[in-house]
Amino acid sequence: MKIWDISQPLKDGVPTWPGDTPFTFKLNWTKEETGSVNVGNLSLSTHTGTHVDAPYHFDDDGKRMLDLQPELYVGDALVVHLENRESITPDDLKGYDLSNVERLLIKTSSWKDRSQFPESITYLSPELAPFLKENGIRLIGVDVPSVDQLDSKDLASHHSLLNHDIHILESVILDEVEEGVYELIALPLPLADSDASPVRAILRR
Ligand SMILES: N[C@@H](CC(=O)c1ccccc1NC=O)C(=O)O
Ligand SMILES: [Zn+2]
Ligand SMILES: [Zn+2]
């Protein structure tokens, strides 16, 4: 069994949404101070690195992280490579067999320098959601920090996906992953009130 780690490493300087909380890890207590252990402290935005959005992120009445079923984030996933596009539309997926896949990961290769927050990305057209729903998709993953255009205020694709019961996984790292079906494991933390959660995402086969 081979494993592909498709998570963005979390370390100081990992890019965040402009103006959002910077990621820091520091020792709150050192082994020297306690005489026995190092104890860390994390400060981070819920949208840091590879993460899932809860509906509450963009809908005040939406489900929070702990309300979501873990099984959404574990199971077979199809990876497709659709590069050099401004957006992804249903036409782009016409050539793929989506039967029997509930999870779809789209490798857009549009975020080239991951040491910086991107200036533009390939985004999902809002018409994609009804098409995905018809094909039984329940989780969509992208290799960029948003499913919408970065300057979007209405978050049309986020809302369209939610309206079609499709959940969102963002900033997966698919550089080393070829098209095909894999088992995805990308479990969020059980954060009761949260709008999102970082995940450790892997593919295996
Ligand atoms: N909706 C975006 C994230 C987002 O909009 C955002 C994330 C962190 C801090 C600010 C954000 N948006 C607007 O101020 C996303 O999850 O794709
Ligand atoms: Zn997010
Ligand atoms: Zn999002």
Explain this structure.
The chain is mainly beta and 205 residues long. It has one domain (3-204): 3-Layer(bba) Sandwich (Glucose Oxidase, domain 1), CATH 3.50.30. It has 4 helices and 12 strands. The protein has helices at 31-34, 90-93, 128-134, 156-163, and strands at 3-5, 24-29, 39-43, 51-53, 74-81, 87-88, 103-107, 123-124, 139-142, 167-170, 180-188, 196-204. The strands form 3 sheets. A 7-stranded mixed beta barrel has the order 4-10-9-7-5-11-12. Strands 2-3 form a two-stranded antiparallel sheet. It has a two-stranded parallel sheet with strand order 6-8. β9, α4 (156-163) and β10 (167-170) form a beta-alpha-beta unit. The longest helix is centred in the last third of the chain and has 8 residues, at 156-163. It is globular, with a radius of gyration of 17 Å. It starts with a strand and ends with a strand. One zinc ion binds at residues 53, 146-147, 158, 168, 170. Homodimer. GO terms for molecular function: arylformamidase activity.
Largest sheet: 7 strands, mixed, barrel
Please identify, by name, the CATH architecture: 3-Layer(bba) Sandwich
Distance between the termini: 6 Å
The total count of strands amounts to 12
Tally of contiguous helical segments = 4
**Considering DSSP H and I runs of 4 or more, what fraction of the residues is helical?**
10-25%
Taking all residues together, what is the mean pLDDT?
98
Total number of distinct structural domains: 1
- CATH topology, by name, is Glucose Oxidase, domain 1
- Gross morphology is globular
* Fraction in beta strands: 25-35%
Q: Helix/strand-derived class?
A: mainly beta
Quaternary organization: single chain
Helix/strand order, N-terminal first: EEHEEEEHEEHEHEEE
CATH homologous group name: Putative cyclase
Q: What is the CA-atom radius of gyration, in angstroms?
A: 17 Å
Taking pLDDT < 50 over at least 5 consecutive residues as the criterion, the unreliable ranges are none
Question: What are the bound molecules?
Answer: N'-Formylkynurenine, zinc ion
Spatial strand sequence of the major β-sheet: 4-10-9-7-5-11-12
Pfam family, one: Cyclase
Binding site for Zn(2+) 1: 47, 51, 53, 170
Keywords: Hydrolase, Metal-binding, Tryptophan catabolism, Zinc
Family: Belongs to the Cyclase 1 superfamily. KynB family.
